[in-house]
Specification:
The complex is a heterodimer of chains A (397) and B (393).
Chain A lengths: L5 E6 L7 H11 L1 E3 L2 E3 L4 E7 L8 H7 L4 E2 L3 H6 L9 E5 L17 H15 L5 E4 L6 H14 L3 E4 L6 E3 L10 E8 L6 H13 L9 E8 L1 H8 L5 H8 L19 H7 L4 E7 L4 E6 L7 E7 L6 E6 L13 H14 L6 H19 L5 E2 L19
Parallel strand pairs in A: 1-4, 1-6, 4-5, 6-7, 7-8, 10-13
Antiparallel strand pairs in A: 2-3, 9-15, 10-14, 11-12, 11-16, 12-13, 14-15
Chain B lengths: L3 E7 L7 H11 L1 E3 L2 E3 L3 E8 L8 H8 L2 E2 L3 H6 L9 E5 L17 H15 L5 E4 L6 H14 L3 E4 L7 E2 L10 E8 L5 H14 L9 E8 L1 H8 L5 H8 L8 H5 L11 H4 L4 E7 L4 E6 L7 E7 L6 E5 L9 H15 L6 H19 L5 E2 L19
Parallel strand pairs in B: 1-4, 1-6, 4-5, 6-7, 7-8, 10-13
Antiparallel strand pairs in B: 2-3, 9-15, 10-14, 11-12, 11-16, 12-13, 14-15
Helix pairs in contact in B: 4-5, 5-12, 6-12
Classes of the chains: A alpha/beta (397), B alpha/beta (393).
């Protein structure tokens, strides 16, 4: 019998509905998958928790799952208190918890710092293991790039990102591989340096499948408030794609009392959306993409693209069964965990980390543009090229 | 092309009532296949049976240029002397109506339908009817409704949004597959919500080899007997696990601290379910199907089946997008529009007929000591359409 892999988890906090809880619980408790309550064929043996706020569940989990031990340091978590790397995979979940915010509004989650502690063990022991990093790599581009470079230099599997690329889609469609994409757009709920990342991942997991694959991004410009509406009027992004994306929403705020599902006029949208934000950017091959956050109008993530040779836009919704309003389980973490499991079993990332490197850079550029009076940011550092996986990796079964 | 003219016959027209959901989509459009559709269809007349507080019928009529008529026949004739609509929406859901001893709400769908048929007969012309949810609480009445459609040769589209909404994952049973067993789980009260669950199961199992053969017998059991029946193998635990694997809203410990749960394996399920109920539906071709109503334990409608020659069960969740948009009803309106524009119902009313009948018989079983009841009258035979009609594009 093959040995069951041992997994370590490094989390910022472990509270109800924190990412640490969603992800680690799925390794411990199992989760619904392909008509079964699936238990990952591996053991989560060690846990590091950076903060223990009120409602911390790590103690309860350690008690109920005695094979998992809590360690006081990242190094101990990886070596199980010894001197050698003792795990076959690492989960790095640096989302949620009390961390400072900088002047640009970025939440300074210590993903880079925790990652550096992980690779420090790799360096001292001369051994490595695959790392799954939840969400973007770091709020700081240089650090994010360093994280990527280290994984390349040390040659371990590294996968990252959010649930958006892997969750259900309504409809259940993927961008045809090699499609000629003329323009792409996403309309989503969310704020700066948080859900903008999810919305950018929504776009990127689709457009990376275009003809020639990903080549990187030339520039980005943010639009906010009045400037957003001016850009919308000037049709800096396609009105047809905008309408297609909104037509995929399941949560369009009714703009008139007494109606449950009505398409808003522009004036009504302005009433509903206090602080609209767009990041528009151009890829090196000329593709224009726009990430739009419309809090107050939608609560979901809707994608639309114009494909060459097709009369109507290609569109779908990346569906998040989000607790507590709509569900009790954030089951969009199930496909994310399933992909991490596959990487731990095979030692190969199931989708390219370059996607997340690029979206990490796009978030940072968007934040910077907003901070610099919504000016255009040239992004020569985002000349990141990669090829998508041929097979779709979103939840379809 | 001149717009098609439709009449709406509703029990009530109030915010979030079914009539408001459906009729409004013809007025303000609806999202479907990535577009905001505004079909070339116009509501020209409305009849509402009750006008409770919050009634919107007069406001809608004023704003969107149609009339509210005091009777169904006048609505269908738009106040004139002959049928003046190209189709009828019959929305007999919501409103204050009594319940019978079986707990069925006595919505006057049959009575409304017969009023329409009377106009069709008198005026020598019949038009398509969409009937929301089940045809009637009473099978004989439901059968008569379907027979009227055949006799006067007008299409009837009936049923709820469950068969046409999104599925997670997007699965359809292969046409002519061999089903060894099937199980549905659902939540909510009777008889509104068990109807939805039975219909969701029906739209899946009707695709089996030989098509639907009708129902031979039914039995509804409740309480601990449901779990005992599972232990005795009357419903397959494997399929319950499969259906539960599709749930996004388990209760109990998940609500408490967010954890995932193997509800069947960890023994929590029986503790969580308030008054469990099992609806056993035996088909004439021998297929055994079961609906488990699991109030308190889950919040979703999920289906699972074992197909011959397929190693793992097939399972899916019938996804009901949230209030207020309830975009599942946009999926159904798209099918109503399809019928109005083509003159043919996309799927047979016999599906709704057999579900109306199996539900009624199950509720009879409940008040008759939970006895198994033979149902020779439910020999409803039909074939599923080859094409899929749920949200998938």
């Amino acid at each position: 019998m093959t040995k069951r892999p041992k997994i370590a988890a490094i989390v910022t906090e472990y509270r109800k509905y924190s990412h640490g809880q969603h992800i680690v619980d799925r390794f411990l408790e199992g989760y619904g998958w392909n008509s079964r309550h699936h238990h990952p064929p591996m053991d989560l043996v060690s846990l590091y928790v950076d903060q223990h706020p009120e409602g911390d569940l790590s103690g309860d989990r350690a008690e109920r799952f005695p094979r998992m031990k809590i360690y006081p340091t990242v190094a101990d978590t990886l070596t199980l208190g010894g001197s050698d790397l003792a795990v076959d995979g690492v989960l790095l979940i640096g989302e949620h918890g009390s961390y400072p915010t900088n002047e640009k509004g970025q939440h300074l989650y210590p993903r880079y710092e925790l990652y550096k502690q992980i690779v420090s063990v790799y360096k001292t022991t001369g051994k490595t293991a695959p790392v799954f990093n939840d969400k973007h790599l770091s709020w700081n581009w240089d650090w994010a790039k360093e994280m990527y470079d280290i994984s390349q230099e040390m040659d371990f599997a590294f996968m990252s990102g959010s649930s958006l690329p892997v969750t259900w889609r309504t409809p259940s469609v993927d961008m045809p591989l090699g499609a000629r994409v003329r323009e792409a757009l996403c309309i989503a709920i969310g704020g700066v340096d948080s859900y903008d990342f999810h919305a950018l991942e929504t776009i990127q997991c689709m457009v990376e499948r275009r003809e020639g694959g990903e080549k990187g991004v030339k520039w980005l410009q943010a639009y906010r408030g009045d400037k957003f509406w001016e850009a919308h009027h000037a049709e800096l992004w396609s009105r047809e794609l905008f309408e297609a994306a909104l037509s995929r929403s399941h949560t369009l705020t009714p703009s008139r009392q007494g109606f449950n599902n009505i398409f808003p006029t522009l004036d009504e949208m302005k009433q509903l959306v206090e602080d609209p934000i767009a990041y528009q950017y151009e890829h090196l091959d000329g593709l224009k993409a726009t990430m739009i956050l419309m809090n107050g109008l939608v609560h979901d993530f809707n994608f639309a693209a114009q494909l060459e040779g097709q009369d109507v836009p290609f569109s779908t919704q990346m569906y998040l069964p989000m607790p507590p309003a709509r569900t009790t389980l954030a089951n969009f973490f199930s496909p994310l965990v399933n992909n991490a499991e596959k990487m731990f079993l095979t030692g190969v990332a199931t989708y390219p980390v370059e996607r997340t490197l690029l979206t990490t850079g796009l978030v940072a550029a968007g934040v910077e543009s907003l901070f610099q009076d919504q000016t255009r940011q040239e992004t020569p550092h985002l000349n990141i090229s990669y090829q998508p996986t041929e097979e779709s990796t979103f939840w379809r079964t | 092309m001149a717009p098609k003219r439709i009449g709406v016959i509703a029990t009530i027209y109030r915010y979030l009532s079914h009539a408001q959901h459906f009729a409004d989509r013809f007025i303000v459009g609806y999202p479907y296949e990535g577009r905001w559709h505004r079909p070339n269809i116009q509501i020209v007349s409305l009849y509402v049976d009750q006008k409770p507080e919050g009634d919107q019928s007069a406001d809608r009529a004023r704003e969107f240029g149609f009339s509210v008529y005091p009777t169904i026949s006048e609505a269908l004739r738009c106040g004139g002397d002959e049928l003046a609509v190209d189709a009828v929406l019959l929305i007999g859901e919501h409103g204050e109506y009594p319940r019978n001893e079986k707990g069925q709400v006595l919505y006057p769908r049959y009575e409304f339908f017969k009023e329409c048929v009377k106009v069709f007969e008198e005026d020598g012309r019949a038009v398509p009817i969409y009937n929301d949810k089940h045809l009637s609480y009473n099978f004989e009445k439901a059968q008569e409704m379907v027979d009227d459609g055949h006799r006067l040769e007008f299409p009837i589209l009936a049923g709820s949004s469950l068969p046409v909404t999104w599925r997670l994952p997007d699965v359809e049973l292969p046409l002519d597959c061999e089903i060894e067993s099937a199980l549905m789980i659902g939540v909510g009260g009777s008889d509104p919500m068990d109807y939805h669950a039975l219909e969701a199961m029906q739209c899946m199992v009707e695709r089996r080899k030989g098509g639907e053969t009708g129902v031979k017998a039914v039995q509804l059991i409740e309480g601990d007997a449901v779990w005992e029946a599972g232990e005795a193998g009357r419903w397959p635990k494997e399929l319950l696990e499969a259906a539960l694997s599709r749930c996004d809203s388990p209760g109990g410990l998940t609500k408490e601290d967010g954890r995932t749960q193997d509800l069947l394996g960890n023994g929590e399920l029986p503790k969580l379910v308030e008054n469990p109920a099992a609806y056993f539906i035996e088909r004439n071709d021998g297929l055994q199907t079961t609906l488990l109503m699991l109030n308190g334990a889950i919040g979703d409608y999920c289906f699972a089946a074992r197909l011959k020659g397929v190693p793992d069960p097939v399972s899916t969740q019938f996804f009901l997008p949230p209030t207020p948009n309830v975009t599942y009803s946009a999926c159904l309106v798209a099918k109503i529009v399809e019928m109005i524009m083509t003159g043919a119902a996309p799927f047979p009313a016999e599906r709704t007929l057999v579900v109306s009948g199996m539900l009624e018989s199950c509720l009879t079983s409940r008040i008759q000591d939970h006895q198994r009841l033979e149902t020779p009258h439910l020999r409803v035979e039909y074939h599923a359409p080859a094409e899929s009609h749920h949200g998938r594009a």
